[in-house]
Fold these 3 entries.
Entry 1:
Amino acid sequence: MIRSRTVVVVGALAAAGFLVSPVVRSQVAGAAPDSAPCADPSGRPWCDRGLSAERRAEALVAALTGEEKKALLAGDDLVGPLRAADDPKYRAGTVHGVPRLGIPELYLVDAGSMGVKQGPNTALASGLSLAATFDPQAVRQAGALVADEAVHHGNDVVLGPAVDLMRTARSGRAFEAYGEDPLLTSRMGASWIGSVQARGLIAQVKHFPANNQEANRYSVNAVVSERALREVYLPPFEAAVREAKVGSVMCGYNLVNGLPSCSNTPLLDGVLRKQWGFTGFVVSDWMRGVKSTDGSMKAGLDLEMPVGVQYSPPALGSALENGKITWTDVDARLRARFRTLFAFGVFDRARPVNDGRIDYTAHGRTAQQLSEQGITLLKNTSGVLPLKAGTKIAVIGKPAAQVRSAVGSAYVKPVSSITPLKALTTRAVAKNVTYRDGTDVAAAVKAARAAKAAVVFVADARAEDADVTCLTLRCGDGKLGDQDALVTAVAKANPNTVVVMQTGGPVLTPWAGKVRGIVESWYAGGPGGTAIARVLFGDVDPGGRLPVTFPAAEKQAPASGNASQYPGVGDTVRYSEELLVGYRHYDAKGYVPAFPFGYGLSYTSFKFTSLKVSRTGVSVTVTNTGRRRGYAVPQLYLGLPSSKAVPEPAWQLRGFSKVALAPGASARVTFPLDARALSYWNTSSHSWQRAKGCAKVMVGSSSRSVALTGSLC
Ligand code: BGC
């Protein structure tokens, strides 16, 4: 995708001499080193593998000239990110090297839950779909797949995962991250990072922090309390740093409590480095992320991308001259990056482009299975699903004949794809399928009437840099027409109507009571058509559960109708709902959502028994009481003791598990509890404190379906 905002500034930057650094570039962008930069260590003490990464970084920084240092603090390529997404030379950014010292050029690529954005690659389902798997093991598989493609394309750093919480259901980037719950997002993010970094790549968790809307995204100031930050928005980053040892962090475009994220000393230096012990490097979001030279330098921003503006050699030169920054600051920033590069072996290995080695066929199969694991069955009455072989079906709606995805830096051009229509036609046998795109509603109704079941495909349209303007399907892709009216008309014509939604976030389902089946397939990825067909025909149990609440009406949605909370007044957005994000909001208001967080049906049924609660964990037995093999996703919610001084949400997710069970089979599931699970952030002592009193314990199959309760005192 070419973003016009970037194009505008290219000319100005080139004219000012910012694009090509004064230090010669080691390689042409797109060519990664064929031999290890430290293959010949003679005269290069930083190549001594016997030294720690810190010592090697110190030695390297000591060998740099002042001009080289200034030039190394920013990226050097705007051309890569300006290419189209399907151009194999697309790259989010590069940072030049220094050939005289054997410093390699660094390659950064947009790669997250949806795959690697660098020419056609495996297009996985969206981050929300991955979150819907409720399965860290599935996330590890997705991470390994992405890492394999990123490595073979010659990259060093992947710009993912996004772990921003979905605070408003209108968020244009809701599709990209892992939903509305801090624990689920933390678990998913940490698993993804772990598998990507196991392959030697540096993951870059983003967008630190409180980056929760696209409206006014370059200058919005999130005013958020210390407690909400610690309990809601920071945990996924904390897990990335403390558990997954993420190598890099991207600071967002937004401001937090009046300070730009990329020069936010309390958060970047105080929380990230000093409290969490982050030793990696901090990178700015692309263009406009950095708002000041000295502010960012002092706060701990290590690299400006995609090119230097605040960190251009002239800007750095004048800040040094007038004493706003010192060479000690510059060295600290460089050391952070080089320390990480040494720790991840960037100097000690070759990373040639080897894309011919990518096994796209195997990756396609994995992507399809992962998509199946995320597909969420929301309604299934009168046994309308799974569809039986030989059933005559009318497939309706333009999205049936499309591969839906979102627009933005996460978009991946699929190396291969199959539409749901094609996959259904293959699975159901062509003679049993009629297709109408829905433009002519009467024709669609006629086809539905003539079939045993009607499957209507609907979709929304989410994009980076723009939130959706409302939650109805009418606010989605204008080219799709009035999808709500189409569903209603078809449902009237055929009682066995099933709606398949391909959305990047919650949408309203005003027709839910009129149809027998509802399936949320999310943006299902290149092989998603096959995944959808397999779930509809019951070849596989729908594995997904909702990582976001679907409201029954727009006015139920968090921050809805309160401009100060969203989209903000002027540049200010007040997070005055405090901890009441996602399902916590619906619980506090007593709203009955259309579909609650954690909800999703299986083709079989489960029973939860034998709840055991102890200080170290909660355990429960899950039994498949139906006649098919299926996936159960037992969830543990705690209600911590609430008081006026320390109000608590009614319920908070504290554990989840996913088990595949054959008919009649049981499994004992344990949710371990650590001190954090029973604690709140004390804003007087600025630390976690164990809540006094008894916590309510609830185990069930969603945030609203209570199977067993207990208490923990
Ligand atoms: C996005 C980042 C992305 C970067 C590079 C920015 O606009 O916010 O998430 O990694 O572009 O494409």
Entry 2:
Amino acid sequence: MTAQVIPTIQELRGALASIRSAGRTIGLVPTMGALHAGHGRLIETARRETGCVVVSIFVNPIQFDRSDDYERYPRPLSIDVEFCSARGVDFVFAPSAKEMYPDTERAFVEVAGVSEHLCGQFRPGHFRGVATVVLKLLNIVQPDRAYFGEKDAQQLAVIRRMVSDLNVPVAIVEVPTVRDADGLALSSRNQHLSPEERRIAPMLSLALKTARDLISGGETRPAAIKREALRILEEYSEVRVEYLEIVGAEDMQPTGEITGPVRVAGAIWIGKTRLIDNVLCAPGGAHPTQTARG
Ligand code: PAF
């Protein structure tokens, strides 16, 4: 069945009112489009767990810190709608920027603490833009459950914190990262990589995996772990490391000696493309999902 594409907030609210009064649960998968197998996993999980699946496709201008990144962000809407239809999505909410932000004066959501380090340090205003649009989407759709990928672990931490602090009645569901066979985490930005850049891109996941192996082997000193991981990336002159950091699995604050679950997270530039990735790690080989929220 073809997913119904809805461009306005009013129409979507109307359609969802009858779903809700029929007693069906609603799952929201917020996206910026250019859908790939990672989004596919989010949609499939929502499909399994809820009675009605809404995918939002909106390239959110207020979360981009560079206008060239916003302009060149891929927008293949009709292909995305086919992708959603093939996976049993009920509604694709695809609003214009004017529909979402009719005025220039507006309220924003700031989530302190978890937003500060990693991407927050290098992309000013990014998480404020993400938190604001996600809260708007949650208010528009009022889903029972909303689905986000582990690849954007800091985004997920920001959203969890916002939902908890602002008492938003929704369950946030984390879905594991989907990777290509060589380890590269799927991302809509991967399509900007040249064949040569694509060959080098999996080095980020290799560096993170190296860090994870050291941590599960008993290494507890962040500096020593980062040194080994960075050594892998430094072999490639095409790679510019923006950050490679070890943070608390929940609070996203840089750690001292590792004594509990942590995330190793990295952002690199290859040419004009920025890639991020992260892995959850537990010291001394304990399974991280036993000690941190999966
Ligand atoms: O992860 C994304 O695609 C975006 O940051 C999100 C959550 C859809 C908000 O625009």
Entry 3:
Amino acid sequence: MKKHIIVQKFGGSSVANVDRIKTVAKRIFETKTKNNNVVVVVSALGDTTDELEELAFNITKNPSEREMDMLMSTGEQISCALLAMAVKELGHDAISFTGNQVGIKTDSSHTKARIETICGKRIKAALKQNKIVIVAGFQGVSDEDEITTLGRGGSDLTAVALAVALKANVCEIFTDVKGIYTTDPRVVKQARKIQNITFDEMLEMASLGAQVMQARSIEVAKRFNIPIHVRSSFSKEEGTMIVKKDEKLEEISVRGVTSNKKESKITICSVPDQPGIAAQIFTEISKSGANVDIIVQNVSHTKLTDISFTIPTSDFNKALDATTKIAKKIRAGEILTDKNISRISIVGSGMRSHHGIAAKMFQALAKNKINIDMISTSEISISCIIDQKQTDEAVKILHKAFQLDKI
Ligand code: ADP
Ligand code: ASP
Ligand code: MG
């Protein structure tokens, strides 16, 4: 009988210390003894990636992205070697590999590289020798033989991409919560575990701040239709299945609530209200590499208008430099900035067919004196920009207003 190939990914908190590494090793060993081929993807131990980043920023405000990748990729190299040792200690042969060693080829955009191909020859050879294969997550190699990383949370992407390349039967993401919840269970204790969620809804939740899965990994899973099982490293309980839309799945109007505190706002005041000005501004900002999100332009009665937009806080400095330059060129007025904003969102594919959802969201916020600064919608989500101090409160209010504690 042909053996199943199972890809299992363990996140940082699942391997935060020696005891946890040993527990993970036992779990992998159990999967292997059920006559499976097991390929494991592992993240850096605990908060290693954050600590490495902090070290770099203690040395320079502007580290080169190439050197950041050299640095950040070391975290996963440590954890994969340790995990291989722990598995061997249990009496089963195992081998660890870096992304480069298993041929995870990426483009050359350091710190956010895209996977182009995976060769996987060494993985297949090691599986043939009945070894448990442990791959360092979050990293690859470019055509120029440079080490690259896949963006924060990128081990999820390594796992899904390997599942595609190896035609795995199952892709399991082990983390420190029991699955995908209606909102972050660390913020709202009434949050409920979701049994099944569609790729589209998970992609939207992940893009809007639910860090439990990296958004790009869901894009790949959706494209290749790889179902993902998100579950706990610390329990045997079934978690959440992320799957293609199933006709049997009832379309729920609001599936979850998310928040993102890592956004900032820039406003350019007194912008000449003429054709082509917005194009000039946002061309300049896009050239800086900053990712603009919500844009609001005020109605102009005076031939001068204000334009506000949000960007990820990590892009703030480059966006502000570009804005300052273009504002001067087009003779706009003052530039205002606000890093103390956050985005709260509701997500659900049933929004397409239910009406009154936005009104209910705004009413719930208004009743609790939470001011809405900006609004943005997609087919299956509604987001509001609010004062960052009120983020957790707003999440709790919306979770309750849409009765997500009762599903
Ligand atoms: P890992 O280290 O396993 O990759 P992460 O820290 O990246 O884990 O993601 C797991 C965390 O995501 C949880 O501890 C939880 O606080 C957070 N989270 C945010 N939103 C959700 C959600 N809707 N469902 C589950 N977890 C969520
Ligand atoms: N260690 C990397 C990070 O913290 C990748 C990952 O854990 O998925 O972002
Ligand atoms: Mg993660």
